[in-house]
Design the sequence.
């Protein structure tokens, strides 16, 4: 629990968990205010659970949700009224604490000097200088003569995940003195490709996380806040507290959102009743616990409709589980079913034969066009919408002893509701240059984009140098020349010690990195396993995030194309990696 005192009466904190409530009670707090709307992100505890914890520990609970970037005068008055009514000390929280600190600052502005308020928030770790004019307006003072929109950076990056930091690293390799800022609210950075191996008992989850401060480049200005909206005509990004940051070039790489609530009953039973998912850092160890404890019964592994990140991950969890059960001589007592909403086992046909060999080897029942639509954890029963070849659908219930779920996935709400989104809610990008189709000073990469590539870390590794190259050209007023060919990779862990290394680009075209005599991607390989287990994590932390583009240098068009030529993507020259 990260508590930051603003005054003896009130402190603020980033997201609380039910377990933190007991700590807050022991620290003497009497009331908790939740300023974060429920289910704002997939990793957020339910507010009802925090309320119940408050009741258990004798604290009063008050829910005052504030939409990021949209703190209204009504919100400020409601917050002030709460503080006037409550017995202190009070603890308020939101995702990072910024909204709560801003609410307090604006509610105090009527009787405290703006400088005093800003000193208090700065001492607590919240720089609210961009709120000075609003603070003065709340107090009735004339606004200061300063830029209402705050600072401006050459390059502003939304997202401190794989995409955002890889682009920052590639930009700094090319131009070390570039003015770059990153907006990222999380304090930890995750190596998500490792969670499959955590769920398979190969990795400890501590190997997949590092403090964000340790991976954020020193030359970069880090805003530990959440993005709330875009004003592309003004070249402004709006943060959760209403602060606006200007940019010359914007790079958008926020990842995607896991939509647990799209399946009724799922969120309520995650992590218990035999229901797990490798798509969450906290749940991957539970997958391994279930695999070890399951000795018989039915094990279901599900995959929703596309798009999802790492389309092979649901299968990987299943194959590793089956391999363990086979080694323990218990597989024959377990009915394993793969229930996928798709019409094929894998989207690229060249890799299906090798995967089918393992489906048959493990005795897996393959259920195509089976979409998970409900989970009853208490009954240990899953409901699927089953569609036949003629398009007719019906619902089927399946009891389970173990259920591994891949949740439906979508673009984050602040993307889908923004002017940057296409009709389906995804970031609208040119599939080759990764430039926004309507705003030339905006680029994007990673899972939130609408480019038709596999959503994998390997795709980001190839996209980041393309974006970096084109961003620098845009800063010089030149047309993009670097192009992305849709490369993605999915190391399919078919057993402990062997991987089918799927590598492909747009249209499912195979794009092997290594010669077939070294690694035949369409067949299980021990060398590919060594790459996945030993080499790729090291490459991620020590190369990709630092802008070292080994085997990932961007392809450049030999000339700057006219708009009607931009999609031709021919006559490439190869840029040397890392330059």
Sequence:
């Amino acid at each position: 629990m990260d508590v930051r005192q603003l005054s003896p009466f009130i402190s603020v904190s980033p997201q609380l968990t039910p377990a933190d409530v007991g700590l807050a009670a022991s620290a003497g707090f009497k009331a908790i205010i939740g300023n974060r709307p429920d289910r704002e992100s997939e990793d957020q505890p339910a507010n009802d659970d925090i309320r119940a914890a408050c009741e258990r520990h004798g604290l009063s609970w008050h829910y005052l949700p504030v939409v990021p970037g949209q703190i209204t005068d009504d919100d400020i008055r409601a917050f002030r009224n709460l503080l006037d009514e409550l017995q202190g000390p009070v603890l308020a929280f939101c995702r990072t604490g910024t909204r709560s600190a801003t609410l307090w600052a604006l509610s105090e502005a009527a009787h405290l000097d703006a400088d005093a308020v800003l000193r208090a928030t700065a001492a607590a770790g919240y720089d609210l200088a961009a709120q000075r004019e609003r603070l003065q307006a709340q107090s009735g003072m004339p606004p200061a003569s300063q830029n209402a929109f705050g600072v401006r950076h050459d390059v502003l990056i939304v997202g401190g995940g794989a995409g955002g930091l890889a682009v920052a690293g590639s930009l700094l390799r090319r131009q070390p003195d570039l003015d770059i800022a990153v907006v990222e609210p999380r304090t930890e950075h995750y190596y998500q490709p490792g969670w499959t191996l955590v769920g398979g008992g190969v990795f400890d989850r501590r190997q997949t996380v590092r403090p964000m401060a340790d991976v954020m480049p020193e030359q970069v200005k880090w805003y530990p806040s959440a993005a709330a909206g875009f004003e592309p005509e003004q070249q402004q990004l709006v943060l959760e507290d209403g602060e606006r940051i200007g940019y010359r070039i914007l790079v958008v790489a926020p990842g995607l959102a896991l939509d647990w609530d799209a399946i009724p009953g799922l969120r309520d039973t995650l992590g218990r009743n035999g229901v797990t998912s490798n798509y969450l850092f906290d749940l991957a160890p539970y997958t391994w616990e279930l695999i070890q404890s399951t000795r018989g019964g039915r094990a279901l592994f599900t995959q929703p409709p596309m798009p999802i990140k790492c389309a092979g991950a649901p299968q990987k969890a299943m194959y590793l589980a089956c391999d363990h059960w086979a080694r323990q001589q218990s597989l024959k007592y377990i009915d394993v079913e793969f229930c996928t909403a798709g019409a094929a086992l894998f989207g690229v046909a060249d890799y299906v034969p090798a995967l089918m060999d393992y489906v048959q080897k493990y005795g897996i029942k393959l259920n195509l066009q089976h979409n998970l639509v409900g989970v009853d954890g208490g009954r240990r029963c899953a409901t699927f919408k089953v569609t036949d070849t003629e398009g007719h659908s019906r619902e089927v219930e399946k009891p389970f002893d173990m259920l591994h779920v891949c949740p439906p996935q979508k673009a984050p709400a602040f993307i889908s509701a923004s002017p940057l989104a296409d009709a389906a809610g995804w970031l609208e990008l040119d599939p080759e240059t990764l430039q926004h189709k309507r705003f030339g000073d905006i680029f994007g990469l990673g899972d939130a984009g609408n480019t038709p590539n596999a959503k994998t870390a390997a795709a980001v590794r190839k996209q980041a140098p393309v974006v970096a190259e084109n961003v620098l050209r845009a800063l010089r007023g030149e047309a993009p020349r670097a192009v992305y060919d849709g490369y993605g990779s999915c190391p399919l862990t078919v057993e402990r010690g062997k991987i089918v290394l799927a590598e492909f680009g747009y249209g499912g075209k195979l794009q092997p990195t290594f010669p077939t005599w070294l690694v035949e991607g369409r067949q299980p390989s021990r060398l590919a396993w060594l790459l996945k287990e030993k080499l790729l994590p090291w490459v991620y932390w020590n190369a990709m995030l630092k802008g070292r583009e080994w085997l990932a240098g961007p392809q450049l068009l030999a000339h700057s194309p006219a708009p009607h030529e931009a999609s031709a993507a021919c006559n490439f020259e190869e840029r040397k990696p890392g330059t």
User: Anything to note?
Assistant: The longest strand covers residues 244-252. The chain has three domains: 4-139, 152-256+411-513+536-574, 265-406.
